[in-house]
Amino acid sequence: MDIKKLPISVWLVVLLLLVSGCSRGQTIEPVKAEYADSNLYQHMDLLLAGLVSDFIPGVSVYIETPNGGYAASAGYADLDTLTPMTSQSRIPNGSAGKKLIGLLGAILDDKQLLSLDEPVLPWVPKGMAGRIQNLEIMTLRQLLNHSTGIYEYNDVGELDFIRAQLADKAHRKGNRFALQFVLDQSPYFEPGEGFAYSNSGYVLAGVVIENKLKQPLGRLLHEHVLEPLGLSETFVKGYDCAADDVAAGYFFNMDEPDFVLPYRQRYNTRQLIVNTALADAPVASSAQDMAKLLKSIIVKKQPVNERIYRNMVGDRHLQTARWLPSFMDGALYYGLGVMVEKHEGGVLYHHGGNEFGFITQSVYLAEQDVAIGLIANCGAQDECDEPVIALTQTLITHFFANNSD
């Protein structure tokens, strides 16, 4: 039997078995939903309600199909105030926000305000220029498709980056805060000679774009991306006050007594995450806006045109991606902030985000014209991540199987 053709009723049992045993008396907020297809969504109510646990306080999902949209939520956005999670709830998007930076770069290139293929060296702060190798041959496109070989700031020392975050979690930290961990680190390879997912590349790209255009990244994102696409529930961290008004995020350290976050205690990461405003995880938004953004790129909704589309996900510029998550066991590639997964039945576009206290998923099934956005206020631990990813897989499998019949 092909597991990808299992009916959603069977996937429902699998997912509920996966999350069963996690819940420890947590009160579940009733699921709120707007229905477009009751054949699927009567099961979704059970899936979302079953997902809520000690490790997953709240979840919100938005699905857009050719037959209409669906929004549902369960659990809590804040456990202290018992504020329910709703379809309007926002959380930091983590790396799922990279597609916004990739799209911004492609739009600015299309408007001839910069070039994706010019060296970034002139726009790197002078104090950093001599301490990051290969800047003279490194391009913005390579930063955005992870082909520069630049060192990952999270890999420095024994969790040096998060330790520095925790030491001063009350104050804003921007791109230069993260780049200090990259200075004088040896690259993984020469630019253009490989692929290595690196948040540092997006952080440096944010600095380059700001210096080149002499405008804050937040202003550029609003002018060229958020407002033209009508993403009214997306806000830039460190720039929009509304980006601080997000659901609380929770990390529950069950396994490591010596870890930097408290052992066997639920830790609220909201202040830590919203005060770290980096270009590799630039925004907070709702599940609906996440779904809308990815679909807008692929269907070429204005201001996205054919040239912008090709720069972002066209075959010519895709990098073969290694060690990144796939959903359909297809060949996986990376464009500008978008993963492109080519499988037997077509193409799946996706990019999730995961950081302490938050996890997000955004998916677009091209042949089915289905966009999915999913957010939960937990993250960076298996008890949260595995059920959320399983739910995403369940939805992908359902829509793919229905279209294949």
Structure description:
Strands 1, 2, 3, 4, 10, 11, 12, 13, 14, 15 and 16 form an 11-stranded antiparallel β-sheet that branches. A 3-stranded antiparallel β-sheet has the order 5-9-6. The protein has a two-stranded antiparallel ribbon with strand order 7-8. It is 34% helix and 18% strand. It folds into 2 domains: 212 residues, no CATH class; 139 residues, DD-peptidase/beta-lactamase superfamily (Beta-lactamase, 3-Layer(aba) Sandwich), CATH 3.40.710.10. It has 13 helices and 16 strands.
In short:
This protein has 405 residues and is α+β, with helices and mostly antiparallel strands.
Share of residues in strands: 15-25%
| Overall pLDDT metric | 89
> Can you count the helices?
13
Rg for CA atoms? 20 Å
State the distance separating the first and last CA atoms: 15 Å
Number of domains: 2
What is the molecular shape?
globular
Q: Give a count of the beta strands, DSSP E runs of length 2 or more.
A: 16
Helical amount: 25-40%
The largest sheet, given as strand count, sense and whether it forms a barrel, is: 11 strands, antiparallel
List the helices and strands in order: HEHEEEEHHHHHHHEEEHEHHEEEEEEEH
Uncertain parts? 1-36
Assign the structural class, choosing from mainly alpha, mainly beta, alpha/beta, alpha+beta, or little secondary structure: alpha+beta
